[in-house]
Every structure is written in structure tokens, then in C-alpha cells.
What does this fold into?
Amino acid sequence: LAKTTQPISMDSYEGQEVNITCSHNNIATNDYITWYQQFPSQGPRFIIQGYKTKVTNEVASLFIPADRKSSTLSLPRVSLSDTAVYYCLVGPANAGKSTFGDGTTLTVKP
Amino acid sequence: KAGVTQTPRYLIKTRGQQVTLSCSPISGHRSVSWYQQTPGQGLQFLFEYFSETQRNKGNFPGRFSGRQFSNSRSEMNVSTLELGDSALYLCASSLVGQNNYGYTFGSGTRLTVV
It folds into this structure.
């Protein structure tokens, strides 16, 4: 599975848009990009998944450039409750084995 | 609909004992994966079961084992517990098919080995 690289931590303020970028230079043709959110002592929660271009749902957008070697998770107007660890995963959509990297700890301040 | 249910939520065991953790996936989900999460190692994949067969396995010693039943419920077992096995054990389930949208995780079982 492709290795991913994310910033270790990011800070933001309530109401701002937050963009977290993930690098995955060795992404394979059949790999999808999936983002999860995790709060302390809870399991990760699926946020969004995409293959190319742009995907948007009710909580986030995922931007994937044409070469697919990176992706950006965009969280619009964050609130204090968005403080969490965000993981980027790259692999086949139906793979049972997912390699989680270190994730990005997002801290939203008032 | 009900989410992924893991039992028990908390467990304290003594070194050398064995433990069995249970996971009930979302109804209709046939793939169940197990992960270990520790502060030092992060989230590490243990194994995945699909239709009662182990399909993928991570780099854990043979003391860690699992199984899946015909109703897709899964158990994992750790024998001869060590202090380093203290962790949050997470189970995740997924539909397997063309429209897979990631995995749904349970809240985990917090295992403390003393």
C-alpha cells in the first residue's frame, strides 16, 4: 500500500476553512484516497473518499490533482468540535488492510 | 441503523492470561478488520476476515488470532498477555463491492494488562 505523508499538526480558529494535504507519491492505479477523523478513545470515523478530481459531501471536500500524487481535505468553517486527528489512507477501495499513517492533529481555537 | 458494536468496552487482565474481544459488524457488512492502537505505534492492522476466512494479516505474533462466524460477527483472541498488549483494540466493518465507502469503526475495547 502507498505510503502517505501528512503534517503532524495544524492549528486553526473557529469559522476558518482548514486544508490538510496528504502526499502519496506511490499511489497505484486502482487506489482510492480515504480520510478519517478520530477523537480520543473513539474509533476513526469515515469522512470522505475519492479517486480523482473533486468530491464533496455534507462535511468536507476532497481535492485530487490530475497526477493523484497528493490530495487535500478541506473542512469549511471549522468549529471547536472539529479538533481531532485526521488520517489519510491510500489503497484499493475494498481493501481490508488499511495502513494508517501518523495522522494530522488539528486543533481549533476559539 | 446500529453501528459496529464492540464488547466489552473496558477490560483489565493480568500478564499471562488470555482475552477474547467481540465485534458485531453493521448488518449486511461481511468484511471485519481489527486494529490495535497505542500511543507509541499508532493504528496498526491486525487482520481482516471476510466470509469466515482470514483475508489479510498484519505483522503481529501468533498470540493474536481471530475468527469470524457465519453471521459475520468476529472475535479476536490474545493469549499469554504481555504488558505491551495494553491498547485500544478497534474493529471495523465494511460492505465489499463496487460501492464501498470506507470502513465503519466501533468505539473499541480498552485492554489494560497489569
